Amino acid sequence: METNGLLGLYGSELLLLEKALGLKTGELALDLVGELVSVKLVPQGTGVSYGYLSYTANRENLGLVAIGFSDGIPRSATNSFQVEIGGKQFKSIGRIAMDQCVIELGEVSPPLGAEVSFFNSSFTLADWANASGMTPLEILGRITARVSRVWVA
């Protein structure tokens, strides 16, 4: 797995921090989690988010996630990131807005309130850096005070 400096999501990329935190290789070290606040079935060809940069290819469920660029999600990652809900991966669609973003759910309809993982095993912090043109450190540094920090031992 490619790493950029000291920061990464999984044990071996954390170098000395891995030992300090007592992590094992392959363990998730941090995550950014949003909440699924709406699921809507839309027809094929529906324009999504501000400016309609994207249109749905098929009739499908779209999920609205309560997190956006004012929380630190890089707007430059518009249309190029993936999230995880309940172990399943979903692609983003449309422009990242101030406090929300939209994901393609296809035929799936997760429950409202479901946790949406932004830094996960299928789309890592390094992937976010590549998608946004930033470094992993810049991604982490952009996460604002609006986002609650929770330490899980």
Q: Do you know the CATH architecture?
A: Beta Barrel
Give the uncertain stretches in residue-range form. 1-18
Integer tally of domains: 1
Helix-strand topology string: HEEEEEEEEHH
Q: Strand order of the main beta sheet, please?
A: 7-4-1-8
Describe the 3D structure:
With 153 residues, the chain is of the alpha+beta class. It has one domain (31-142): Beta Barrel (Lyase, Ornithine Decarboxylase, Chain A, domain 1), CATH 2.40.37.10. The protein is built from three helices and eight strands; from the N terminus they run αββββββββαα. Strand 5 and strand 6 form a beta hairpin. The radius of gyration is 16 Å and the shape is globular.
Give the SSE layout:
Layout: H1 16-21, E1 33-42, E2 47-48, E3 54-55, E4 60-65, E5 82-85, E6 88-91, E7 101-106, E8 115-117, H2 125-132, H3 136-142
Antiparallel strand pairs: 1-4, 1-8, 2-3, 4-7, 5-6
Question: How would you sum up this structure in a few lines?
Answer:
With 153 residues, this protein is α+β, with helices and mostly antiparallel strands.
List its salient traits.
four-stranded antiparallel sheet, Lyase, Ornithine Decarboxylase, Chain A, domain 1, 153 residues, globular
